[in-house]
Design goal:
207 residues; alpha+beta; 30s Ribosomal Protein S18; Immunoglobulin-like; four-stranded antiparallel β-sheet; three-stranded antiparallel β-sheet; 5 helices; 7 strands
């Protein structure tokens, strides 16, 4: 009897239904389609003063979240990038330090914040700090033992003044105690978002 040989690719050589299922068995991943938040909410003008909105598109290290992750469309991504860069350049909350006086180790000052125009920031925390322009420290141990290290912008005192409403004007009188051995070269007042940790405004006054 003549031997039956199948042609390449014939039914004799093709895998069975069970083999085909095994050969093609792979894990399937379903990705949810990302949509542009600005398109859905019909937001055309992205306000650089809208702090909460911009924070949603900025990573912890201060980088803008790419659109492949956020789902923002290309036109809105360009507007969002411009708004974030403008927000970084411009001070969003008008803050001023005045009436600074020093009596011994006591420093008294007046901090004033005007309400930001169209600033949707909610509640934030006002801090006041005293810092030295420079300082030196001696290394006692290790490979650098006996050497002196130079430091700049050394914070000596940090005091949380309290929670403020960014939509209304605020004025506070603050008294700080300067530790002995501290020059206290500058007085710094800044406003910080308690959730994200971002600094929203800063004012510096020499002592």
């Amino acid at each position: 009897m003549a031997e039956s040989r199948g042609r390449p690719g014939s039914a004799a050589q093709r895998p069975t239904g069970g083999d085909k299922a095994v050969a093609t068995q792979k894990k399937q991943y379903f990705r949810r389609k990302k949509v542009c938040r600005f398109c859905v909410e019909k937001i055309d003008d992205i306000n650089y003063k809208d702090v909460k909105l911009l924070h949603a598109f900025v990573a912890e290290r201060g980088k803008i979240i790419p659109r492949r992750i956020s789902g923002v469309c290309a036109p809105h991504q360009r507007r969002l990038t411009d708004a974030i860069k403008k927000a970084i350049r411009e001070q969003k909350i008008p803050i001023a330090i005045s009436k600074v006086s020093r009596n011994g180790n006591q420093v008294t000052t007046h901090i004033e914040l005007r309400a930001g125009q169209n600033l949707k920031g909610g509640l934030s925390v006002l801090f006041v700090a005293i810092a030295d322009n420079k300082a030196e420290s001696q290394v006692a141990r290790g490979e650098n033992a006996g050497r002196s290290l130079a430091h700049v912008a050394v914070m000596r005192v940090l005091k949380p003044v309290g929670t403020i409403d960014l939509d209304s004007a605020t004025a506070r009188d603050v008294t700080l105690s300067v530790p002995s051995g501290t020059n206290g070269s500058r007085l710094v007042a800044f406003v910080q978002d308690p959730k994200s940790g971002h600094v929203l405004a800063v004012a510096v006054q020499k002592l």
